[in-house]
Amino acid sequence: MRKSGASGNKITPNRKLIRKSASRQDLRGLNDKVTLKHILGLTTTNTNGLASNPTSGIIAYPAGCVIVLYNTKTNIQKHILNPDKKTITCVSFSPDGRYLVSGESGQQPSVRVWDLNENLSQVAELRGHKSGINAVEFSPNNKLLVSIGDQHDMLVNVWNWKLGHTVACNKSGCRVRSVSFSESGNYLVTVGNRHVKFWYLDQEATSKGNAPITPITGRAGILGDQRNNCFTDVKCGRGKNSAFTYCVTKSSLLCMFNERRIMDKWVELKAGSANCLEVTENYIFCGCSNGLIRVFDPTSLRFVASFPRPHNLGVNVSEGLQPTDLVHVSNKSCPDLVAITLDSEHFKMTSIYNDHSLYVWDLKNIKKVGKVASFLYHSACIWGVETYPYFDDSPSACLPYGSFLTCSSDDTIRIWNIETGNTQVKMYPRNLYSKELLKIVYIDEDLSNIQDTSMAPFGKDTDGKNGVRCMQISPDGQILATGDRSGNLRIYSLDFFDETFRIEAHESEILCVEFSPEESGYKLLASSSRDRLIHIFDVMKKYTLLQTIDDHSSSITAVRFNYDENILQLLSCGADKVVMFHTAQTNENGVCFVRNTIVPGKATLYDMGIEPTRKYAATVGQDRNMRVYNVQEAKQTTCFKGSLSDEGNLIKFQLDGGGVYAAISCSDKTIGIFDFVNGECEASMHGHSEIATGLKFTADGKHLISVSGDGCIFVWNLPPALTENIRNRILDLNAPLPQENDYEEDARRKTFVVSGSDSIPTDPSHLEESISNGKTPAGYRFSVGQLPLWAQKQMGNGQDGNGQSKGQSQPMGRWGQGGLGPVTEQALEIPHRKFSEDSIASAHSENPIDGEPEEVIYPPVEEDTAMMDPEKTFYVTESRGSQSANKTFNQNGETIDLNGTEDVDTETDPEKESDMDRQSSSDVESDNDEAFSPLMEHFEKLATPAKILSASRSRSSSSSEPVEPQNALQQKFVPGHRASISAKFLSRSQKSSSTRSSTNSTGTADEQRKRLENLKAKLGNHPSSASQTTSTNTNNIIHERPPPTQASAPNLSTAQRAANRKASMDAAARMSP
C-alpha cells in the first residue's frame, strides 16, 4: 500500500499485536482467508431460481453472486461463489444429483457447471450468450444442457457440456420465462408471453462429438382460446403422463397439452395468478398468488388438496410460539408464490414467496401438510446493520448475546440471532416462523413495500422515500434511534420495541444518527441529513432540540461524537468534501457546539469512523483513499489506498472493537479488511450483487457482518490470526469481551420428543441438568444416527440400530395432537421411489437419513371451500379436435358446452409485434447491464442538494411536456421522464387502435358510398324523421362518426340541425375514395 501525508505523522497507538512466525503464517490468498459462514437472504425472482437435488434433497437458490446449498435435514448451508462477481439468476441439478448448473446476468455471461462431489469445484464454463441467462436445465440422460437467454438475447442454446461446445441453437422470438425437458429427452418446451413452443432435438446430430451447430426445430403449441395469455411456467409429464405437457398462466389457469401440441384441458385455479409449477407422476403442484399451493391429478386435472398458507403479511413473529399461532387470518393477505421445488425422494417441498420468505413443507401426508422449517428475509435494499453491545452483567441486556439489527427499504427493522445456544432472553424467545429472526418492527402500517418489486418495468426504485435509512443503539443498550428516508426520527425502547418518540426532524432523508459516549456525562443524539443540517437532541429532556448546525453546503453523510481528555467533540463529513470539527461548550441551555476547524478534501466523503482510543478518525470517499486524522490537532496524518482495484468509490468504513482492522466496502461490490496502522490489505471478499451498504464486526472478533442493496446479510468467518489480534487489543483496552465458551454448542439441532404436550419446552435447562447427572429424563432421546452401525447396536438395553427401544412407539411430540396414532421409525433405504399415495403412506413414519427426527409442525387447517367440495369450485375445460368443444363440468357432473373457436398456431413474428406488446408491464424487466447500478446512482446523487432534486421532480411531474434527460441514468429513473415514456407508448397505442377500429367498421369504399346515398335520399324525403333515421344508421355503422352531442341539441332548430348533418355528410363523402 502506498502511504502519503505529512512526514513524521504516523499512527502509533499503544497496542499489542500477535505476529505469527513464518511457519504459522496464513499462506492463503486474500480471497480465501475470510470464508462465508451463513447467509440470511435470497435473490430468487422467478421459478428458475430454486432447485432440489433429486438424491440428497439439498436445495439450491441464489443470494447475490453466491449459490446457497441448504440441507433441510441438518439446517447447514454451503456456498458457491461466482468468480466473475455476476449475479446468479438460475440454478438446476443434474438427474443423478452430482452436478449443479448456474446461469448469471450481465454482459457476456457464462453457464457454469459445478461438481458437488469435488469440493464444489467448477468443471465447465460455457460462453455463448451476449446478455443475461434466464433458465438452465440438464437433459434426462445428463449429456446435454440447455440455456435460455433473456429478452435482450433470446437464444436457445443446447450444449454438450462435457466437451464444452454448442450442438444446437436457435432464437426464441420473445422472452422465455421457463424451460422443461421431456422425460425422453427428444424435445424441450419453452413458455412466455403468448408463447408455448416445442423444440425437437436431432438425437443423431447432438450425440456426435465434433458435429457442427445445427438449428433446433421449433413448433408452436396450439393455444386456442388462450392464445393471448402469458404462460409463466412449464413442466413435462412424468411416468404414465410423459406424453403430456403442463403450463400455468398469469391469469391463474393450469393447462395440459397432448402429444400433438394441442391444449387439451385447462382448469381455473381460483387465484389471482399462477407463477410456478411442479409435476410428478401422480400430482401437480401449482404455486399461486396469496400464498396458495393447489394440488391436482395430472391425468384428469381433478383437484386433490391445498397446502396451508404461509404467514400473513405484517405478522408478529415474536408471538408465533404455538402451532395454533400459525393459522391464516382470512382478512389479511399472504405473500405470492415465486418458486417451488419438490424433493420426491424425501417427500418435501420448498417454496419461495415474493416477500423473500422460504418454507420447507413435509408431504408425507398430502392431505395434511406440515411445516419443517421457514425463514423470513428482507425483500429490499438493506441500508444498515448494528450489533448489540456485549455486557458483563447479562440481566441488563435487552437482547441475547450475538444479536444484531438490520433496517431496510421494505419498511422493517429486524432483530437476528444466529447463535444456537441462546433460547430466550426476556421478551424475545425463539419462535416457529424463523429460528434466526427474533422480531420484526413494521414502519409502514399499509405494508406497501414488504413485497419485492424487482419485477416492475423499470426495476427497483431506490430513490423512493420508503424505508429506514440508518439506525444506532445507545451505549447502554436500552434505546434504538432510527432515521427514515422521509426525514422522520424514531426512538424505540428495546425492552418491548415500542416506539416512544417520533420527530419530523429533516426535510429529506436522514443519512446518519449518533449517540454521545456515556463517559462524556451527556446524553445527546445527533442526526444528519441531505438537507445539509445537523440536529442535536437532549435525550434526558424527551429529545428536545438543543441546536441546529448548518455549516455544511451539501449532504452530510456521517456525524460522530468523540470524547477525549474531558473534551466533547462533534465530527462531520459529507458531499461538500470537508471534515468539520466542533467542540462542545456549556451555556444556560445546557451545551452547544462551536466550529473549530475545517479540513478540506478532494472528493465526496461517504463515511467516517473513530478508533477506540479516541485519538484518531478516518474517512473514506470517492477518491478510494482512507484518510486518517488526529482528532485533537484536527489534521490529516496518513492516507492509505482503501481498495485493491483502481475503479469504484469507497462507501462504508467500520473498525473492529479493538481498532486493529478496518473493513471497507467499495462500489465494485467488494469488501476489504485493512490493517489500520500500516494500511496493508489482510483479506478481500466478494459475493454481494450490489454495494455493501453496512458493515459490522461482532463483539467477540470472530465474524464480520455485511449487508447490501441485494437484500442479503452475509456473516463472514474471520481467520484465527485476525481474531486473536482483535481480542488481545480489546483486553488491553479493558473493554468487556465475550469468553470463548459463551454460548458455544454443537451445531446440530437439539431434538426434544414431548409426550402429552402441545408444544416443545422453551427452557431445556432441567433436561440438561438431568443429563449431566447421568440420568435420562423422560421425553428426551439421544440421537445416535451418526454413529457406525456396530456402535449403534451397542447403545442401551434392547435398542435397535436407530437408538430406539425395541417394541416401543416413538412419541409424536408437538405433532402428536393430530391424532395420527403411534408410529414406528424405519430407515430410509429405498434407492428409487415414486411419489404416490402408497409411497407416502408407507414412509409416513420414517425418519430422515441421518436418523434424527425432524421437527414437523402442522398448522391448523383453515376452512377451504375447494377442499370441502372441489367439484363446485374447480371446472375442467376440455378441447376436442380442431374446434374447441369447451366442456365445463358442473356440480352434478353434467357438461356445459361453451362457445368454441378454432385452434390456431399462435406463434407471432417478433418483427410484427407492436411496441405496446413489447413494453407490457408483465413482460419487461430491468436491463441486466452490470455497469448500471441504481444504488450507486443514489450515492452519487448525495452531492446534489435535496431542494434542487425535489424542485426538478415537481417541475417534471407538473409539466405536460416531457423533460429532456441529461444522461443515461436520468433517462431511466427520473419520474417525469418515465411518465413521458409511458405517455409516448400510450399515444401510439391509441392511434393504432383507432386506426384499426375505423378500418374494420367502415368496410370497403363502395359500401360507404352506398350508405351515404341512402342516407341522403331518406333525409330529402322525410326531413321530420331525420333525427330518428340518423340514430338508426349510427347504431349500424359503429365508429364511423361520433354521435351528436345531446346537450347542444335543444338549442338548435330543426333546419340548423339538418344543415349541420348535411355538411358533415358532404365532408365524409369527399374524404371517402
From TrEMBL:
Organism: Clytia hemisphaerica
Positions with biased composition (Polar residues): 794-811, 879-894, 1046-1057
Keyword Repeat annotated: yes
Keywords (A to Z) from UniProt: Repeat, WD repeat
Protein's recorded name: MAPK binding protein
WD repeats: 404-426, 503-547, 685-718
Biased composition (Basic and acidic residues): 909-920, 1006-1016
Regions annotated as coiled coil: none
Domain MABP1/WDR62 second WD40: 382-718
Record PROSITE patterns: WD_REPEATS_1, WD_REPEATS_2, WD_REPEATS_REGION
Composition skew (Low complexity), residue ranges: 950-960, 987-1004, 1024-1036
Keyword Magnesium: no
Region (Disordered): 755-777, 793-822, 877-1073
Pfam family, any one: WD40_MABP1-WDR62_2nd
